[in-house]
Amino acid sequence: MEIEKSQSPNKNTVKQQVSVERNKNGNQGLFSKLQKERKNLPIFKHRQGLLDKIKSNQISVIAGETGCGKTTQIPQYLIEEGLNKNRMIAVTQPRRVAAITIAQRVAQEMNTTVGNKVGYSVRFEEAVDKNNTKLLYMTDGMLLRETIVDPNLSRFSIIVIDEAHERTINSDLLISLLKQLSERRKDLKIIIMSATIETEKFANFFETENIIYLEGRCHPIEVFYSKKPHADYLDAALNTILQIHFEEQDGDILCFLVGQEDIEDMQQMLEEKIELFPKEAKKLNICTLYAALPSHLQLLAFEKSQEGERKVVLSTNIAETSVTIDGIKYVVDPGLVKTRKYNPNKLIEMLLVVPVSKSSAMQRAGRAGRQSAGKCFRLYTKYTHDTLAEFMLPEILRSNLSTVILQMKAIGIKDVKGFQFIDRPHEDQFIESIENLQQMNALDANENITLHGKEMAELPLEPIYAHFMLVAFATNPNSISVVLSAISLMQVENLFFIPKGAKISLLDVLLRFQLGNSDQLTKVNMLHQYYLAKNKKSFCKENFINQKNIKKALEVRQQLENYFLDILKKRSKKNQKQNTKVAQNQANALQQSEEQQIQEELAKGNTLKKLQEEHKTAIQQEINTEEFVSCIAKGLSVKAAKLNNDGTYTIIRSNIQAYIHPESLLFYSKPKPEYIIFNEVVSTIKTYLRDITEIQFSDFKEISK
Ligand SMILES: Nc1ncnc2c1ncn2[C@@H]1O[C@H](COP(=O)(O)OP(=O)(O)OP(=O)(O)O)[C@@H](O)[C@H]1O
Fold this sequence. Notes:
The chain is an alpha/beta fold and 705 residues long. It is built from 27 helices and 21 strands. The protein is globular. The model is unreliable at 1-25 (pLDDT under 50).
């Protein structure tokens, strides 16, 4: 059996373990079936050639058709061949849902359970066994965080960067760091997996000629185009889904939409149509898939459909690469994507809906032919397709670099401008982001990382929110509970759900919870009342709250609270060390085990409770409005704006004119507040400021100094 052959320092132990797991799963039939499927994948015939090339090169760049088996098979081949050499193999993914579902699939194929020989690690969630996991699927962001703690990535013998052509900031940065690391760790194997279009670029960057092309597609995919452009893409998608449901053979549908709002609208439209289905019609089940959906709900979309039923998965582009959703045979692709675009002249980042690239369109179609032949319906013309860009501009060239630079500094890279990127960002992006970090005191005048900056880098947040959290605590430690809630809410979209035709507006709902002249405090108040509510479901129903998302905000809050308590523990350990002048070697030992100790202590509920009480991080019933306002004014000072005579606001930092968003409580304030802090700039026909808190003149004076 391949698994036994592959691993073993001690064959008996492995055999025993495999049989224990087999009994536990009782799933030998499934295992044999999967072994057969593995051998039928196009990649299987390349197995030996592939392994030979990987063995004889430190760096390999691999390209292959979508679905040929790169992500699930190559890591298993490496283990079967013993190339992991008693260390772990990391396989990075741009998206968490991919890391989790692929780990589940590979665990099945290896006849084990997730968190055992195969694990995953994504932000706020992991399933790993330090002593047992050999193959770890993780988001590129998690591996990047690991480089801060261990720049040599010493627990890994092989690192696979999957979907490298997506060119996320994290995978670009990882690739640059791996190039440096390959000099220091000659024993480390690096594998870059990418769609065909970008392979040369990666190979040139690594100065290698070892490019491996894997021929062969899993199953054929037929592509259809619209005859003419559609005025309303949701309408076109709805009709296509219904047409497939009534006219095509069995098989599930995956429809790509641009965001949670469109997904919820489509869900509602479909539900209305389903109500009108004739009795004898096949059942159509709706599943949704978007980043803000908690993992356990995302996974519902991956479940098998019942015999005689069909599912339609409404998804953002998180299902575009890597994932295989069981049963999908039809893809509906309107050809649009919501993307971040940073405007360095205006110092704002905007979310825009833009046409996809040819590469994305190909990936989307690729979701259809994974288990059998498939069809892809593109809701745009062939002519439009031919005019699409080959691929998206790499994220690093269209983003604010503050997060990247802070991470690079935390890793110890001093000269960020001289760093070798695959595509170098524009000079203005560097200057602006460094200034931005200096304003937050994360970097000093010489661009060195400060202690504050190091703590900011430990928090899994954009620098601005990490700064807000730490500054708020320094300004007024009692405010931390409210600030943790406010920041968590800022990470979650669409807290309310007001059905079409309801005789209530968002403003009416907000007014029920209003606290001070602040959207943030009002939402914090709502979150805390939800937390205390005995019947949470009816609380949400009565108040038009999206329960999925408010739950998510509470989960994020819990995680942030843990990270924050970690920082406080580290601070107090550092103080202790300084005060007691522990012998140097003891101090070193302490530092090494610090991380582990903190994790273990936090894992014990009692310690967490004690810490929560000591530092007042738990949800408090009383909210002090004034304290919060002065904290937000200090912590989010880069997001301050001042009222003009014509009723518009000027953003202090960028001099942009903007309006208060109609969904803000303060939109209706009379007189309008003179000074505000906002959270988001949204540009449509006009530029709006969202999530607003009124601040005092005294605070504003401080900011504009
Ligand atoms: N969860 C799953 N359920 C059923 N089949 C699966 C699952 N995951 C993978 N497969 C099968 O294994 C094949 C290979 O998947 P894999 O993700 O390794 O391909 P890939 O080459 O990495 O594709 P991509 O470039 O699109 O990520 C799929 O085409 C599908 O047939």
